[in-house]
Amino acid sequence: MSRIVLVFLAAILSDALSYGQVNVEPNTALLNEGDRTELLCRYGRAINYCRIEIPGEQKVLNLSPVWSKTPGFTYYGAGLNAGQCGVSIEHVKASNNGQVKCSLGVEGEELSGTIDLVVALRPKQPMIELITKPNRDGYFSENTEFHARCIVRDGRPPANISWYIDNMPANKNTNQLQILSTPTHDNVELSTSVQEIKWHLAPEDSNRKLVCRSHHQTDRESVPAQEAAYIIMVRYAPVSQPEASVYGLYLEHTAIVNITIRASPPPTIEWNVAGVVIPQGRTEGRYSAYDPQYLGNDLYNVTLAIGGLTLEDTTKVYQLRASNEIGIADYSVRISSSSKPPSSSLDVAAIVGIVVAIAVLLLIVLLVLFARATGRWCFGGKSLKTPTNETSDTESADIKATSTSTATATTTATTTGAGAAHDDDAEDEQQNGGNGGASAASDAERANGKKAKRLPAFAVAILKRFNERDANKHSSKDNNAETGINEQTQDNNTTTTTTAAATAAATTIDGNDNEPKALVWQSTSPVWTFK
């Protein structure tokens, strides 16, 4: 509730203030000579009359929406009843610069307001003043602190200043812009802008154009900004540079060796080839030194001609000495018959090839990891266990059991004589040899089983089919062997069957039946073997 009351009171106070004062639009008008403009004074109630005084005009303008008595000046606004008193100036003159005063008659009293009318006056041409003076020839020495001042006089409003070197921003040390008042003889106040710049000169500053450019309200496309320029001249010794290389020279032809140097004043040069000194303009044997050629901007082209270039010439280092009244500089030049210099970095094609190779390698690694994790492709048979080792172990156990039974029967039949004993000894030796061979084969098969090579899915399926077939055959064989053992145990009660039991035992121990065994893929050798 209190907030609503405050808003209401603020509105009332605002209305009261608007009734008690004159509002103006704009507060300041910045114009060029000849521009058109509108100036407006407003009051919150109806007004009785509207009078406007403009600097440079002889009379006061009494304006109304219904009449216009002064050419070039007309009423501007929504009418006297709306409390508006304004003027439209067709062409602003330089003499109109100053304060425009409007007077409004309201209920027996007169209220007034003012508007600042600034008619821009184009300043004079900028001027560069040298604080640091050059020598009598107009040159500065290297490392001299160059100090200059730009002055733009008699502007309204004051002009801004910017510095350029060869049409690029100078980016040098400048002080803050200074504005000075400069009254004229007719008491019209104008302004002068001043700014200074300074830096230490280097060889690259020589023959460069320093520009001071003014920016002002009166600038137009048809009337560009005004500027002043100064050419800086610097004296310095020949500028040193790294060892130069010249490529693409032809053997057995005249070779032209060029090098560009910077110096001011012009340099005097001499070449030194393997201890032989060739001054400029002279010829020594196959070597000719030419006078330096001026290229502009303190640059000189220095040339050495070599007649009938040999392979030995390409192994030499060519020394050049340039000197002027400021100093001396030495240069080294190497030449080559190669068409281009050796590349110190990879070209774009090599970089692209390396990136592609790395991407392919990463893709292969990711595919291998994915296949191994999901059991696909060449890892598809990882979870399938072939019964080769179990079959081998079962066969070994069967042979051992059969051998034990046979040995028992043979022991019972030892009363048959020396010939039977001799057969028993041979049988024992064969048993021991068979058991040792079976055990060794079983151990080797287990070791090979640990190293079994993973096969593709189709090979695993074929192997599984072979193992199932062998398993059926071994099952039938085991049943027959068990029946034979029971019959042999019964026959051992009589001595008449001793010879037959020994013969059966020898046959069992030998184990050289014609039954096919399981096919096993050995990891050490890619061949199929029978176990």
UniProtKB/TrEMBL annotation:
Signal peptide: 1-20
Low complexity bias locations: 401-420
Bias-annotated ranges (Basic and acidic residues): 470-480
Record key words, sorted: Cell adhesion, Disulfide bond, Glycoprotein, Membrane, Repeat, Signal, Transmembrane, Transmembrane helix
InterPro entries (alphabetical): CD80_C2-set, Ig-like_dom, Ig-like_dom_sf, Ig-like_fold, Nectin/Nectin-like
Stretches the record annotates as Disordered: 382-450, 470-498
A biological process from GO: homophilic cell adhesion via plasma membrane adhesion molecules
Transmembrane segments: 348-370
Domain Ig-like positions: 126-224
GO cellular component term, pick one: adherens junction
Residue ranges with Polar residues bias: 481-493
Location, primary (coarse class): membrane
Location relative to the cell: Membrane
Pfam families: C2-set_2
CDD domains documented for this protein: Ig (cd00096)
Protein's recorded name: Fasciclin-3 isoform X4
Organism, as annotated: Drosophila albomicans (Fruit fly)
Taxonomic lineage: Eukaryota, Metazoa, Ecdysozoa, Arthropoda, Hexapoda
Gene symbol of the encoding locus: LOC117566212
